[in-house]
Every structure is written in structure tokens, then in C-alpha cells.
Amino acid sequence: MADDEKTADDPEQESTQEGGAAAAAAPQQTLEVDDSDVNASYANFCRVSSTPEELILDLGLNPQPYGTGITKINVAQRVILNHYTAKRLLGALSQALQRHEQAFGVLETNVRNRLKAPA
User: Of 5, 35, 57, 105, which has the most beta carbons under 10 Å away?
Assistant: First the structure.
């Protein structure tokens, strides 16, 4: 059956019509973000762990990113997300990094590869 021959009795067409009507009738949500009391911190270290219910993101400062041996890192922030929010965060970060690399070039994540040899 061609697309233009579908009738309202066709379950595929019916679900499309209902979905479109529901999306059009759903009120739009507008978010206002109040960041007037935010505490900003810097992190050059992150650790990700998870449970079946949550994803845990620990952020901290590595005082010796070029060091060798044991380095103690104090975790300054712990963000606990559900997996849905973590996936949305992944998408948002991915898009932001793609835009940055298009403007400024590819980011090298290995610190040692960014070091320049002495002249």
C-alpha cells in the first residue's frame, strides 16, 4: 500500500496522527536558571563510577598533572546523576566540544602529548 493510500484504520498512520496532535497540544516548558548563588570551582581531574540507578561524577584538582608516582587528589565536587540526565549531559558536552574543536583545532587529551620538547 502506498503512503497516500493509508487510512485512519492503518495503525501506523493512526499513531502518527495521534503523536503529532499530542505534541502540538503539549505545553512548552520554559526554564529560568538562577545562578546568582553558584559556587564555581576548577577541575582538571574527573572520575566516573556508577550504580544501577545512578552515575557518580567526582571532580577535583590534580596538583601535579605532569608528575609521576602517587599523587593525592582531593575530590572537591561530587555530582550524582540519573542515567537519563547523564546521557543528556553527554550529548551537550559532545556538541560543545565539537564546536570548540571546529573553531580551535583538535584537543589532545593526553597531557604528555601536549608537552613541547625543550628547544
Answer: 57
Give the chain's radius of gyration (CA, Å). Answer: 24
Nearest one of 44, 110, 35 to 76, comparing CA atoms: 44
- As averages over each run of 10 residues, the pLDDT of the chain (119 residues) reads 45 50 76 90 94 97 84 93 97 97 92 72
The pTM (predicted TM-score) of the whole model is 0.64
Distance between CA atoms of residues 75 and 58, nearest Å: 6
